[in-house]
Amino acid sequence: MKASLPFKYIIAVKSGKQYVVFDYKDSNGKRQRKWVGTGLAEKCSKRALVEKVNELVSEFFSTYLNEISAQEPTEDEKEPEIKPEKKSGKKSQPLPETVEKPVSELTNKDYGFTEFMRVWLETIRPTIAETSYQGYLWKVNTIVDYFDENYPDIKLNAVTGMILQKFYNEMFTAGRSANTVKHYHANIHKALQYALKMDLVQVNESDKTERPKLIKYEATFYNPKELELLFSAFRGDRMELVVLIAAYYGLRRSEIIGLKWSSIDFDKKTLTVHEQAYNTYENGKMVVKFHNQLKTKSSYRTLPLIPQIEELLLTKRKNDKYLAQVLKKGYNHDYDEYICTDNFGELITPNYVTDHFRQMIKKHKLKKLRFHDLRHSCASLLVANGVPMKAIQEWLGHSTFHVTADYYSHLDFNSKIESANTIANILGGSEESEKQEEKSTMKRKKRKSRVTEDQ
């Protein structure tokens, strides 16, 4: 939506194609809605969609706005009819990949709250990364499940701050973290803000709520001895290479699974992170997909190929070729270009990484640790050995220096020692500071003597 324009618009999907839906008032003050096709498929590039939308909005503003009330909508522009969903009493299934008709003529009295949450999510889908959409989908599913069970017939404009507060409190009491509740709130707030812009509600009721206090997460990490025990536990395991890459490079789980053989340059001795894996639903089943949209621009990085990792990679590449020849049809070649596969060519999935890692930690009675904490372990070792924060930021692919400093500055004890020595020398009161002062005085006298001789 653009508040500065004399009309509103959204991006919507209909019959597998992208449309811009304009919402405006005609010369008689009557509210109208016009669908304009972009000519782009549903799964087009974000850049192409943005460019086309900007073009259509500009054209609509300059050409059609003053004449639109006299025009009869074409078949493409007519708004599709949406039939209300029947309540089954069962918990909602994962949201479908597309909603063909995300905008309807329903008034604020007709929209069901959970129906609107689905509409909102599919409306914003073209504007966000696919991984962000998957994250939104999980949260929206939880919201829909709760309201379908506790308020099955509640309308959009009947949702109050008190009802939302009850939802947040119950989620927190049930064991959800304050951060998770914050994400539920963020989705609901964005959806209601969209409803407010579309004149479906008069106020954003989520603004009236309070969320649980966030507790800053203190990362858990392994020291070198604990890492040795971990490496020993995974020796010979199908996830050995995955664990070692995580510990040596601090890569995210999705980045490791997204590594291709083309990501490794054995001649230049480099490893490049430029793709990631993510989970999504297709036909009701969880599947793994890949794309080159990483978390931030800083996530795209090229790092030196560490000798220990290089040796493991060369061994794996050799073993993969051997197993493919021996197993023949029993070997899956669908993931030949990816590094993280098992002895049968099957992809090691992100969910498997998390679950198997947890099982191995428990089996070998190691200190409890999440797989993602290997990233923190890598960072803690770099900090402990005097690597500058800026270099650690680039190694881990953090978006800004502040993110790295916020996570790991408390580990930088060496800098605290330097600070202590500095303040002691400045303020004096110690034998060491007196010696430093004597040395400084002698240096000044020598410099003065040289100047006198030169003159």
Per-chain topology:
Layout (H helix, E strand, L loop, with lengths): L7 E7 L2 E9 L5 E11 L4 H19 L48 H12 L5 H21 L10 H13 L4 H20 L26 H10 L6 H10 L3 H5 L6 E2 L4 E4 L2 E7 L2 E7 L9 E4 L2 H21 L22 H14 L9 H12 L4 H8 L4 H8 L4 H15 L3 H24 L1
Antiparallel strand pairs: 1-2, 2-3, 4-5, 5-8, 6-7
Describe the structure using short key phrases:
single chain, 455 residues, mainly alpha, DNA polymerase, domain 1, hpI Integrase, Chain A, 3-stranded antiparallel beta sheet, 15 helices, 8 strands, 47% helix, globular
> How does CATH name the architecture of the largest domain?
Orthogonal Bundle
Biggest sheet: strand arrangement: 1-2-3
> What share of residues are in beta strands?
5-15%
Whole-angstrom Rg: 29 Å
Poorly predicted ranges: 64-109
Helix content estimate: 40-55%
Number of domains: 4
Quick structural overview:
This protein is mostly helical. The chain has helices at 46-64, 113-124, 130-150, 161-173, 178-197, 224-233, 240-249, 253-257, 307-327, 350-363, 373-384, 389-396, 401-408, 413-427, 431-454; strands at residues 8-14, 17-25, 31-41, 264-265, 270-273, 276-282, 285-291, 301-304. The chain contains 15 helices and 8 strands.
Describe the protein's architecture and organization:
This protein has 455 residues and is mainly α. It has four domains: 1-78, no CATH class; 88-215, Orthogonal Bundle (DNA polymerase, domain 1), CATH 1.10.150; 238-411, hpI Integrase, Chain A (Orthogonal Bundle), CATH 1.10.443; 415-454, no CATH class. The protein has helices spanning 46-64, 113-124, 130-150, 161-173, 178-197, 224-233, 240-249, 253-257, 307-327, 350-363, 373-384, 389-396, 401-408, 413-427, 431-454, and strands at 8-14, 17-25, 31-41, 264-265, 270-273, 276-282, 285-291, 301-304. The longest helix has 24 residues, at 431-454. Mean pLDDT is 79; it is low at 64-109.
